[in-house]
Design goal:
80% of the residues lie in helices and 0% in strands. The protein has helices at residues 2-8, 11-22, 27-55, 60-88, 90-107, 113-125, 130-141, 147-175, 178-199, 215-218, 221-250, 257-277, 284-295, 305-311, 313-316, 319-333, 339-368, 372-400.
Length: 402
């Protein structure tokens, strides 16, 4: 806490490491494209949901099935696309995925539900991997000693895009229509792919090795632990998201949902900013364990939106730092020649966590009839997985000792 207060009290000290990162050639342009490209991507899910419900007149279960098909397919496709980049380069992958996205979003508003479901799965497999590409390019553009700050900036950029994208999509759907919003999202994603193609950020530094590396040499227990940490982090975040909505609905304060979620995101932004300004890195396992532990008691304050805003502060401040720490660690551990595949696996791990957290918290809330248990379930499951991952890592290290 003292370190945080000292950092906040020294604006020049806080900004110095970030200025150093942004002064590097190509970094400012990369972050600008990242922010703009992620907005339509983050708006896609809620837009598809509203299209299925409002235009195709199906229930939320059918809408959720489309989301599940897209999510599962993108989790499978991310490492495959990353490997494509490692072997063929960035631009060929961008051509394939940008064309696939353009075709899907141009056709999907007119498709009947069964065809839309199948098309969503194919499109998910070929989703433009904006998140993975940006993180891979950061590793190529930024020296190791400055990557923690760079990934902190990246996590803050992700937070901003999730604050803007879904809200903008809901506004556009209610003000115009879901179909028109789908066309706009398709245009935005296509332009994002084109911008990345023209900018063509490097995926490896000039001095880094290009020779292939067998998967067994880099997909080690430590790498698997880092991927598990990423999954746990987003599992807790998506579980918290659902629990917040349930808590406010139970207390008759559902209209404050947007405000509470915005405050939560602001805490994450501040936490990411402070994390990147620190001189010492915090291990990802420690960050995710703290995130899980601090999420468990949030439900005790679920009776009033203002108390919920206060209770969510400690865990909220750890969201961006945890995701930044895992991305940084994966970039350091993966050999440059396979960094695309490694970052794709990291994106898949995050996607899996997002897909699991919401139904986990929702099921617990439905069966317990109390929203507070949703926070507790996400935190406890996350702690258990973190403990198992940590113990496995320790056992492997002890086994290697003579």
């Amino acid at each position: 806490m003292m370190a945080v207060m000292t950092t906040l009290a020294s604006p020049r000290r806080v900004m110095a490491p970030y200025r150093g990162v942004l002064a590097l050639p190509g970094v400012r342009g990369l972050f600008l494209i990242a922010l703009l490209a992620r907005v339509p991507v983050t708006a896609a899910g809620v837009t598809l949901t509203l299209h299925v419900v409002l235009d195709l007149h199906h229930g939320y279960a059918a809408a959720g099935l489309v989301g599940t098909a897209t999510t599962v397919a993108s989790a499978v496709g991310a490492p495959l696309l990353g490997r494509f980049v490692d072997r063929r380069g960035l631009r060929p992958m961008l051509v394939v995925t940008t064309l696939a996205e353009a075709l899907f979003w141009a056709a999907s508003p007119r498709l009947p539900y069964p065809v839309l479901l199948a098309a969503a799965a194919v499109a998910g497999l070929l989703t433009l991997p904006v998140f993975g590409v940006i993180r891979q390019s950061i590793a190529a553009l930024v020296p190791e000693q400055q990557r923690r700050q760079a990934y902190a900036l990246d996590s803050m950029s992700v937070e901003l895009s999730f604050m803007i994208g879904p809200a903008l999509a809901v506004f556009a759907v209610t003000a115009v229509s879901a179909r028109a919003t789908m066309f706009a999202i398709g245009a935005g994603i296509t332009l994002s792919g084109l911008a990345l193609y023209l900018f063509n950020p490097p995926v490896r530094a000039g001095h880094e090795e290009h020779a292939p590396v067998p998967r067994r040499q880099w997909l080690t227990g430590r790498m698997v632990t880092l991927l598990a940490v990423g999954t746990v982090a987003t599992l807790v975040l998506s579980g918290t998201d659902v629990a917040v909505v349930a808590a406010l609905r139970a207390s008759g304060q559902l209209s404050f949902t947007g405000l509470v979620l915005a405050v939560w995101a602001a805490y994450s932004l501040i936490g990411g900013f402070v994390y990147g300004a620190q001189h010492r890195a915090i291990p990802p396992l420690a960050l995710v364990a703290a995130l899980c532990a601090l999420t468990i008691p949030i439900g005790l304050a679920s009776g009033h939106w203002l108390l919920l805003c206060l209770a969510i502060l400690p865990a909220g401040a750890l969201c961006a730092p945890t995701l930044a720490a895992t991305a940084d660690a994966v970039s350091r551990l993966a050999p440059p020649a396979v960094r695309g595949e490694a970052m794709g696996l990291h994106s898949s791990a995050i996607t899996v966590g997002l897909a699991l957290g919401a139904p986990l918290a929702g099921a617990v809330i439905d069966n317990s009839h109390h929203p507070g248990w949703g926070f507790a379930a996400a935190g406890v499951v996350g702690l258990v997985v973190t403990a198992v991952a940590g113990l496995t890592l320790v056992r492997r290290r002890l086994a290697r000792r003579p």
